């Protein structure tokens, strides 16, 4: 009789222990709101300076991931993406987890927050726009690997194919780490619309959108440091409408024949510093578009690729203003071009105050080139207007050039000639053989302050009459 009261009590305790864990698991999977992503607009690939976006992105609804407190360290302001459900197996879609991590860190009251992509793991993210403004500084520390879906066929049909990861309206943001951003661009490069990918080496018509890997838009006080990024479908980095950008010690690589894989492209962006970096790709290592000023590029190793370019500018009769650009203490090797300024006929505006200083060339096809007749087809007609190119300085540029092209090429507009070109301590020798080709000049005005190799005797002295009459757009 004494044991008859014990048995019901034991059974009650047993069922209670089954019930309590189920309540804890239910609370553990609580869903969270993603305010800073879902209000983000889709951004067009080539905006006007400081123009707002037009339409919201279309997104497939995804379930919110769970939050794992084992990876959360709010006392140190560290937000590990695994705490928000991200699985770094290189297969599972981690987009929603990264959105949640971004939203949480962005709204944190801490002065500086770090979103961590941990080492040794690979995360797949679909096209996404991460928006600000955020409260305080924000760091995305990539020590692992980030990857997009693998090629056009794997890209979600309701997301933009023009961009992958976009950072929009952010002030005080750093993208850094020891990890890798793998653009997985191979299948994009093989689209028939890409140069020489069609039948018999032609280019076929058809949809050709390919995503820029990393894009910063209308943001300021940005830093990109220490990362490796490879094989973007198109540009690796693009800065549009940004201010105060510092790129330091990054490594960008893509095959020499990968189309349109510029390393860093800037447009309508000022106060830019690009230092101590290595870029090898299938297009320009750095391309500087319209609306840029106060750009300093130092200690860069560029090539194989297409060199460091200002332009192309003035396409579709547009106006372009570029000024105060410096490229110094750098190496350009095995490239189609060295330091280049390229403009379309029919444009307007100006390029001025450009300094190329202390640059070593290794087997470069066109070490020094100004091309005001830039054209991607054979049917570009002559036009009287042009972007005005003036006050360009080339100092201490030495090395070797590909013997198929002249080492210096100044092809300037008949109606808007280049002016105030200055050469000093330029020594360019053929990479093979002993024949030194003469420089080429057309409507180019300037001087050689020292003897050059080869001698530049084709520059015209003084100023042309059209420039003297101020009949040009000086910006």
TrEMBL record:
Superkingdom of source: Eukaryota
Gene3D superfamilies: Single-stranded right-handed beta-helix, Pectin lyase-like (2.160.20.10)
Residues forming the catalytic site: 306
Signal peptide location: 1-24
Annotated compartments: Secreted, Cell wall
GO molecular function term, any single one: polygalacturonase activity
Full protein name: Polygalacturonase
Gene for this chain: Vigan.08G192600
């Amino acid at each position: 009789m004494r044991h008859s009261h014990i048995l019901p009590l034991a059974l009650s305790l047993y069922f209670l222990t089954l019930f309590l864990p189920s309540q804890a698991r239910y609370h553990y999977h609580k869903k969270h709101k993603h305010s800073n992503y879902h209000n983000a607009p889709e951004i067009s690939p080539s905006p006007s300076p400081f123009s707002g976006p037009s339409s919201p992105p279309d997104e497939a609804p995804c379930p919110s991931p769970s939050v794992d407190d084992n990876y959360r360290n709010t006392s140190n302001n560290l937000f590990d993406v695994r705490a928000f459900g991200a699985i770094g197996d290189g297969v599972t879609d981690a987009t929603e987890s990264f959105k949640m991590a971004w939203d949480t860190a962005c709204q944190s009251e801490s002065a500086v927050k770090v979103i961590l992509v941990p080492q040794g793991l690979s995360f797949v993210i679909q096209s996404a726009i991460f928006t600000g403004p955020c409260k305080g500084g924000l760091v995305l520390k990539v020590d692992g690997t980030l990857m997009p879906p693998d090629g056009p066929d794997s890209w979600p049909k309701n997301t933009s194919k023009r961009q992958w990861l976009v950072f929009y309206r952010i002030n005080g943001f750093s993208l850094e780490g020891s990890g890798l951003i793998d653009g997985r661009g191979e299948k994009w490069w093989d689209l028939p619309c890409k140069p020489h990918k069609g039948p018999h080496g032609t280019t076929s018509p058809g949809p050709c959108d390919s995503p820029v890997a990393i894009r910063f838009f209308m943001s300021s006080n940005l830093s990109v440091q220490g990362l490796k990024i490879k094989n973007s479908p198109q540009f690796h980095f693009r800065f549009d409408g940004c201010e105060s950008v510092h790129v330091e010690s990054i490594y960008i690589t893509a095959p020499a024949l990968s189309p349109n894989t510029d390393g860093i492209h800037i447009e309508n962006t000022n106060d830019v510093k690009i230092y101590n970096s290595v870029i090898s790709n299938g297009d320009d290592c750095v391309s500087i578009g319209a609306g840029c000023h106060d750009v300093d590029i130092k200690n860069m190793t560029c090539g194989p690729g297409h060199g460091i370019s200002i332009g192309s500018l003035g396409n579709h009769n547009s106006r372009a203003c570029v000024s105060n650009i410096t490229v110094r203490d750098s190496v350009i090797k095995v490239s189609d071009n060295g330091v280049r300024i390229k403009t379309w006929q029919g444009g307007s505006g100006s390029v001025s105050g450009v300094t190329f200083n202390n640059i070593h060339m290794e087997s470069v096809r066109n070490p020094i080139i100004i091309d005001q007749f830039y054209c991607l087809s054979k049917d570009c007609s002559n036009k009287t207007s042009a972007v005005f190119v003036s006050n360009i300085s080339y100092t201490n540029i030495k090395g070797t050039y590909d013997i198929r092209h002249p080492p210096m090429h100044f092809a300037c507009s008949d109606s808007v000639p280049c002016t105030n070109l200055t050469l000093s301590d330029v020594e360019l020798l053929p990479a093979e053989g002993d024949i030194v080709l003469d420089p080429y000049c057309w409507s180019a005005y300037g001087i050689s302050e020292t003897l050059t190799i080869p001698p530049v005797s084709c520059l015209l002295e003084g100023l042309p009459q059209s420039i003297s009459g101020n009949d040009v757009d000086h910006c």
